[in-house]
Amino acid sequence: DADVTQTPRNRITKTGKRIMLECSQTKGHDRMYWYRQDPGLGLRLIYYSFDVKDINKGEISDGYSVSRQAQAKFSLSLESAIPNQTALYFCATSEIGGANVLTFGAGSRLTVL
Amino acid sequence: DAKTTQPNSMESNEEEPVHLPCNHSTISGTDYIHWYRQLPSQGPEYVIHGLTSNVNNRMASLAIAEDRKSSTLILHRATLRDAAVYYCIRREGAGSYQLTFGKGTKLSVIP
To answer: Which residues of chain B are modeled with pLDDT < 50?
Structure first.
C-alpha cells in the first residue's frame, strides 16, 4: 500500500457542486499539505497542517477549505466548485524538523464542468 | 516566486550522464537546496538535498557551487525511467516547512 493515499483519483463534477478530496497516510508524519498543479506550472500550496489542531492557509486558499480529522487524515473541500478549479491536486506529508522532505500521494485529478 | 531558475527542458542519451543546472543567486546562508522529480502521471518524489557540501545518494549527486548561487543535479547514467520533470527548490531556513515549486526542467531520455 502507498504511504500517502488519495481518493478519488479522478473526479468529474459540475459547477456549484461540493467536492471533497481525501488524503490518508501511514508515514506517521505530523505535517500534511495540499498542493494544486495546473498544466505546465509548478505546484502551489493551498493549505497545510502541522498537527490535528493546526490549520494554515497557503498561497492559494480562496475557494477551498480543509479538515484534519486525525494525524493520518487531511481532507480538502471545494464548497462550490468552479471550472478554474480544474486541476491535479496532491497531498503530501513531512515529519517535524530534519530536512522537511515531502512524501507525495499519486494525485487526484478534478474536472469541473 | 520559486526563487530558482532552471532550463525548461533538456535531452540526454540513455546511459549517458546528465547534468541539470539550477540558479539560485539570491540564496541566503541557511537556505537548503532540494531536488524533486515528477514522473509522468505520478506525484513528485524526493531526490536529494544539500546545504553547502556536495551530496551523493543512490539516486543522484548534488554539486553545489562554492558561492552557493548555483547547483547541479547529476544523474550518473540516465535511463528511460529518469525521464521526468526535475524541480530545484530553495528551502528557506532550517526551520522552514514550505517548499515552493517552480516549473522545473523536463528531461527527455533518448534510447
So the answer is: none
